[in-house]
Amino acid sequence: MVHRPRPSHLPFTQHQSFLLFPNESRLMDSSPVQFLKDLASINSSDAPLVCYAATMLSSNGMLQNENPLDYTFPLFLFQLIIILLTSRLTAFILKPLRQPRYISEILGGFILGPTLMGRVPAFALTFFPLRSLLVIDSMASIGLVFFMFIVGVEIDPDVVRRVGRRSTLLTFVCLIGPVLIGVLAGIMLHSRIQDGTERGAFVTFLCGILCVSSFSMLARTLADIKLIASDIGRLVLSSAMITNGLAWVLMVFSTALAQSKGKALSAIWSVISGGVFSIVVYMAVRRAARWVQKRTPEGEEVAELHVCVILVGVMVAAFAADAIGTHAIFGAFVYGLAVPNGPLGELLIEKIGDFIEGLLLPLFFAVSGFRTNLYSIVDAGAVFLLLIVVVGAAITKVAGSVLAAFYMEMPFHDGISLGLLMNTKGIVELILLNIGWDKMVLRDQTFTILVIISVISTTLITPLINVAAKPSRRYVAYKRRTIRWWNPESELRMLICAHSSREVPSLISLLDISHPTKRSPFFVYALYLVELTGRASTLFVVNTNCSSSSSLESHRGAPNAGGGFIRHQTESEHISHAFESYEQHAGGVSVQSLTAFSQYPSMHEDVISLSEDKHCALIILPFHKHQTIDGTMEVTHPAIRCLNKNVLAGASCSVGILIDRSLAGTGARAQRYAVALLFFGGADDREALAYADRLATHPGVALTVVRFLPCIGAGGSRRQDRVVDVAGENDDECLAQFQANGGGEAEYVERMVGNAEETVAMLREMEGRYDLYIVGIGEGMSSPLTAGLTEWSECEELGPIGDLLASPDFGSRASVLVLQRGKYREGSEIEMSGGAVVLPMPAGPGK
Question: Which family does the record claim for this protein (predicted)?
Fold first, then answer.
């Protein structure tokens, strides 16, 4: 018997902490290296017995000559810090490879476990003594229980009842191969790699591992490649839900077989008990949750008491599931399935999601890494055989998916994509492997091999999916899609984007003064842009996609909504209703409301691809700043500016950015909008003139066209003069055509200025006269009238004049619309990755 050194001033009887080994001789030749090797053998017959000191929870401090690491609580805190820092550092290193987060976290466990740092005696004995591992394992189990509860909350079980024939076919062909391989391989390999365990349990468990597809990771992958709302996305998600369910059933059956020493009847009763438990919990919790939702007034949070009762219920369900012989996390998962979507589900996730995933779940990955010991692999042939089994099962999934795609008359490429997506592994597989280790279905060597294969396969399959399944769409700019070249009597297609309902009134006001009529109608696509943030939001939108009977065009993606789910649902409804109301009261306008879910770095792809698909002539984007109550401009989200710049750089149609300073309010108060078009010349200004031409006919708009001309002898090189002269000829033609068309009651004014200073002075004289300025960006233009302004630009994407008018230093109270002409080049092509991520609004998942 060996005991840890204790503080000399404490009674031994109260503070002893020691290890008991069944085999005393084994202890004599053990070393600190053996210390953590025992961790990977805890489920073996010669596992060490660890005794704990009942009162050594917290120390009196280092000033009292006590080592905090000798006490349970400070040691756990230090271990938690080490685990989090290691996993985050690993994630930072792997970030360029775009690997799932769980890969870095389990690799962090490898580093700290018996494979690497655990073999350093001082590190193992000091920071991860055997007596401390039960605390880590217990906290990891609590985190896993609540994580599976969250996953259950996010999944809509009604989707399974609505699974169509195609999903059933794909599920069948993706199951039959892995099941056959699992049965044959399990029978043949059991005596070699699993001697001493129950053969039936191992065979059943191996079938479940080979069949499973990680639903949560699959949803995130589909979101990243923008295929969630596509036919492929809906098909593979429905199939993954079924295969996950089957894997859990096989897990329950196999662990029951292992615990009952191969008694099939006992295992069957465990499965039946699990089924009855699921039905009872689902019906009872479902009714209780709906009762809570009904008692919660609309727009208010669920009462704290109700939330507390629900969270306690998670632990009750986990305890009950463990008591009937299934597993605690199975009970928590079923309990989560019973909680309906809505304010209740959103609130629960927002309250515990970050804490569980950011703090407790990494402990589970660390424990998995601790249990994975490369030095437990003593049979190299076993590695090769299991690798063949796993690869063979993956190949049968791909082959079955190709056959299913052929039967469903889908392209061969889509069949390959389906097969790769169905091979997506992740945290679910790791959870099942740990359950198999806990229940003694898997021995140390088999567990280690399967975990390593899982990590390697996930590392390889992720980039393969990105290459094979991510759609690449090439658009050809076959016609000029600009306002100037658009037939005035044909339908003008516009894409109006909004990040929140706050921006909608001004966008509708801008649309209204653009004067759509039955003779010159508008078709408006109102696109609500939602940031994609995190796994939880992915699954909520998955529910929307899977449960929606209507679908958009094939291979159009719709990833997850970010942030508060119900908040975004409410926002989308408000935006949709606002545009629909305008459509009903205005003549000559047709509106289709859509929601786009994406991460900001790729959101411009969604906007551009949708504009290409719908052949829009104009995209209207909100500025990245909004006006506050005191009139100052505040940044809405810094990433919106990058989005606007990317759209300006990539769109083939015209693009406008609206700097809103209460455009809706100013016109409503005055009953008439005063609009000024600032014309300096160039393609962008001519596009702005074409847009202003539509405003000129509106009876509620007083348009003034202010043309800025250089004084004779204004500074500039001869090359600049020639550019201005050539551009001036086109400008004169456009202005002449504008006046010939009637120009409504527009006022035309020319202002002679000699340099940028005079231009700024002239603009300051105009301050207070107008509600809206329209100006071209002036990309590529070199004019003495604006020379030097770009050096002080804060937002260069607005152009020199647009940036000046938007600047707080200028002091303008008027809104500004900055326009860029579509970048048309004969025969030019635009390559986009992924379709637009759009869903019909309102996008409210129903569970």
Answer: Belongs to the monovalent cation:proton antiporter 2 (CPA2) transporter (TC 2.A.37) family. CHX (TC 2.A.37.4) subfamily.
User: How large is the greatest C-alpha to C-alpha distance in the chain, in angstroms?
Assistant: 106
Q: What tokens does 182 get?
A: 């699992």
Return the axis-axis angle of helices 799-806 and 756-765, rounded to nearest 10°.
40
Give the tens place of pLDDT for each residue, 3-30.
333 333 333 233 333 333 333 333 333 3
CA angle 281, 284, 290 (to 5 degrees): 125
**Collapsed DSSP state (helix, strand, coil) of residue 729:** helix
Helix (H, G, I), strand (E, B) or coil at 526: strand
- Mean pLDDT, residues 723-744: 66
* Least confident segment among 380-394, 471-485, 539-553, 788-802: 539-553
More confident residue, 751 or 194: 751
Please state whether beta strands 49-51 and 472-476 pair in parallel, antiparallel, or not at all (unpaired). Answer: unpaired
Burial class (CB in 10 A: 0-12, 13-18, 19+), 726: exposed
Cα-based torsion angle of the residue sequence 351, 357, 360, 363 in order, rounded to the nearest 10 degrees: 180
Q: Where in the sequence of the chain do the CATH 3.40.50.620 domains occur?
A: 659-821
Domain 659-821: CATH superfamily is: HUPs (3.40.50.620)
Taking alpha carbons only, the member of 530, 362, 540, 555 closest to residue 471 is: 555
The number of angstroms, rounded, from the C-alpha of 433 to the middle of its chain's C-alpha atoms is 26
Q: Is 299 left (phi over 0), alpha (psi -120 to 50) or beta?
A: left
Q: Report strand pairing: 18-20 vs 838-840.
A: unpaired
Q: For residue 398, what pLDDT is reported?
A: 94
- Judge whether 459 and 465 are in contact, CB under 8 Å: no
CB proximity list for 825: less than 8 A, separation 6 or greater: 477
pTM given for the model: 0.70
Element (H, E) at 307: helix 304-323
Contact present, 683 and 821 (Cβ < 8 Å): yes
Q: Residue 205: pLDDT above 50?
A: yes
Domain with CATH 1.20.1530.20 in the chain: 103-122+141-468
Omega of the bond prior to 842 within 30 degrees of 0, cis?
yes
Helices (H), 20-157: 24-28, 32-37, 72-94, 101-112, 121-127, 133-154
- Residue 365 has which token pair? 């990955």
**Paired residues of 599 in beta bridges:** none
Place of tokens 């950015």: 657
Residue recorded with tokens 């076993």:
382
For domain 103-122+141-468, the question of CATH label 1.10.3980.10 is answered with: no
Contact 174, 397 (CB under 8 A): yes
Within 8 A by CB and 6+ apart from 343, the residues are 293, 296, 301, 302, 566
Q: What is the mean pLDDT of residues 322-350?
A: 84
Print burial letters for 638-647: b (CB count within 10 Å at least 16), e (below 16). eebbbbbbbb
Look at residue 742 in the predicted model and tell me its pLDDT.
62
User: pLDDT digit string (tens) for 52-98?
Assistant: 666 677 778 787 888 888 888 999 999 999 999 999 999 999 888 87
In the numeric block, the tokens 């001869």 are attached to: 718
Q: CA-CA distance, 772 to 813, in Å (whole number)?
A: 9
